[in-house]
Structure formats: C-alpha cells, structure tokens
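pinging the channel bc i need a second pair of eyes. not urgent but kinda urgent?? the chain im working w is below, pasted from the shared doc
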Amino acid sequence: MNRPAFFSASPAAEITHSFRQIEQDAMHGLPVCNDQLTTEVVGLRRFEQHWVGALITPWTLQLILLPATTEAECLRDGDYRTLEFPQGPVVFMASDNSHLGVYMACSLMSPLHDFPSQGAIRQTAQEVMELLFQPPAEKPQSELVKVAMPGRLDIEREAKPVDQTAGSRRDFLRGRMK
C-alpha cells in the first residue's frame, strides 16, 4: 500500500477509516470497549507542520497528530516528542499504521465506560480541543511547581502552602509535636 508522507488536505476521513477498521477487527467485542461509542475525529485543524485533533474510539480518547507538510519531522514507531501548544507542552508517542503511516498520539482517557453516548464523549473531545489552544491562565511563578508524572514531563501544578505551625520531621520523631 502506498502510504502518504504527509497530508496536504485534512486527513479526517483517512483517520476515521483506519481506526474504524481497528474497531471492527482487532477491538471488536473486547471488554475495554464501550459499545455505545464509535470512531470519530473531532476538531481536526492545522497546527504548525501537523494536523491535530481529538480521536474518539470505543476504547480511548486521544490527541492525534499527522504530518501536514514535508517539513514535519520524520519519526519512527516508539519515538517520543514534546510539542508546545498554547496551553502548554504535550508529550506524544509515534506509532506506525499501515494506512496512515507514522502518526503521533497522546492518550487522554481509557477506558471510556463512563460515557453514556457518542454525544457525551464528543462534547468532551471538543472541550479538549478548545482548551489545547487557549493560553494558560496567568499565575505568579512563585505559586507554581514543576512535577514529573508518567507520560507527561514538566507539568506545572499549584504549590500547596506549607503550614508554618507544623513541626519538622525531627520534632515528630522526638515527640515534640503539639
């Protein structure tokens, strides 16, 4: 099969077709799937040298990126890249698909059993796409702390204030806590 190196026009139909085949073949009847859902691409748009959108399948909600130009970096299956969106950095993993070629994905939710309908998951996917392209709310740097989490690097979280009246670990161990 002749796979494209990049997609000059929206690849929504190709993504949907490819993942519907997976839905109907490899994933059909598996307990991880929500039988109320089907494959759908939501909010697909150009971002730098890529197409980015939210991909709904019966087993996951993920962000998906496909190359839109020849300038898009060529990746191999299993490579990781962090892309900077208006909302902040997002870590993607490259995967190879026989119809799409190499694409990048960031899993957001799985499984999707809590979604009662396609409309409910579609609304969530639309909100994800809106948030992805909004700049983060401004917070003074002193109130933010960097933390590392599996699958995400350098996520900023609000720092929790330290109770100044609490004793130290040494005070606790010595029985000096009040």
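so The first helix runs from residue 12 to 24. and Residues 159-165 have pLDDT under 50 and may be disordered. — does that match what u expected or am i reading it wrong
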